[in-house]
Design goal:
With 523 residues, the chain is an alpha+beta fold. It has three domains: 152 residues, 2-Layer Sandwich (Copper Amine Oxidase, Chain A, domain 1); 120 residues, Immunoglobulin-like (Sandwich), CATH 2.60.40; 178 residues, Zn-dependent exopeptidases (Aminopeptidase). It is 21% helix and 32% strand. Helix 5 crosses helix 10 and helix 7 packs antiparallel against helix 10.
Length: 523
Amino acid sequence: MRRAGQRVLFLLLLPLLLLSFAGHEAAAAGNSAGRIVMDNKELEIPKGIKLENVNGSVMIPIRVVVENLGFEVLWEQKSHKVTVQQDGKSVQLAVGSKTADADGVTLALNAAPKQTGGTVLVPIRFVSEQFGLKVGWDNSDKTVYLSGGAIDSPGDSSSSQPSAAPSPTAVPAPTSVPAVSQGTEGDIVTGVTEPTPTPIPGSAGTPAGSPQVMGAVFSENRLIVSVAGSVKPNITQMGSPDRIVIDFPGAGFAPGFAGSFPGVSASGSPQGKLDVSGYPLITEVRYALFSVSPPTVRFVIQTVGSQPYQLSKDDSTGLVTVDLNVASSGTTPTGGTGITGKPVVALDAGHGGTQSGAVSLTGKLEKNFNLAVIQKAGALLMQSGLVDVVFTRTEDVTLGLQKRVDIAEAAKANLFISVHGNSLPVEYPNRDKVNGSETYYSRAESLPLAQILHKHLVAATGFKDNGIRSKSLHVTRETSMPAVLLEVGYLTNPGNESAMYSEQLQDSLAREIVAGIIEYLGL
């Protein structure tokens, strides 16, 4: 299944990686405004507006996203700021600014929003990642494919689940990598001459017939490199600073490599960088022609701490992937151990006592749901005998946020996991329609734990996947160990509420939380 999932991802990203291909389709698309297709339905783009590619980021009209995905948008004319809201999450972007605000957390953009007439264009990748959408891009006809944005209620039998990522047939992709020649005249289509690609600086000495790097992208916490020709990549992990180095011996950059070379590496050769905004454990991903004789293309993934990885190569597509979404190789993350010498897991049932938390549509209290799940998960963990468990509370008592942190710190816990139920205020538009599961973290070192726990959370609930979100929450910010907060579902949604107070979902969630903990710890 994992192999099949990777293949779908490859096919979705392949058109983006191979932006350098010239041909009839590319030439004809030069006059096209582009297309946006969401769940196999083409959306209407305002007249006079074209999709743009700025620094590798596809820019689309914000109104198209808002009107068709049910987002709420606010436009401040004086400050030229756009605020997009959905499911209680808020993202604010400003025209001309390369930073954005996501629930109080400042994030970097690789392309600033821009205003064309009365329409604001925003980087779709950033917005999609923040709101849990999936994106595909077909450069041949300038088409953006979106999926996963519909808001459905699991309790409504007439609603359907968000459709999966576009099928491979929806995103045309070459079945093989065409040869790239130098010095040829471009194809002439409808009076438009496709110019000869400009050779990459420093690559002119690459022998004819050598493997060529066509393009690269960093997405879904993976580096994916498209290579034409036979090459065996070499990968090395280094420290001071921590980084993963991938060399392609004998390879040069293709004349139309889908990237730019604005900088110069330590060896004096031109180098460029990929966009890694939104990946706090990745400092940068840079590339350069490391050696001319023999030619060698090098990619460097600079990381926060030593990150586990997995290298794979798909000969049928020419795609080389360095996947950072892998658990550590059986080693326990740094932290304390219990009196038995086992890792310590702190389990936190949100709210309690006089602090009831959210009140569901039928008057049920969030604090009771949180405690039920935590007690079930704790019992299963203790039965496993693999870890020691510390609870912040085991009964209905009032407990401050800092006290929860203090309990975990005193136990020298390796992990901190807090369980909550979500809700929206009465005045929120379509309050009872918003649903889904979310996982929150505050510190970069907590992201790997968030990724694993969120996978298990969604598997347990079957609710809409609202994604992993970074937010400054006290219990995930002030703890020193990796910490996450699970928002299981919305108590203001009939379907979510009904399922969350069932023994079936609570038992399933407890099992998945335990499975996620064991997976993360490598036990």
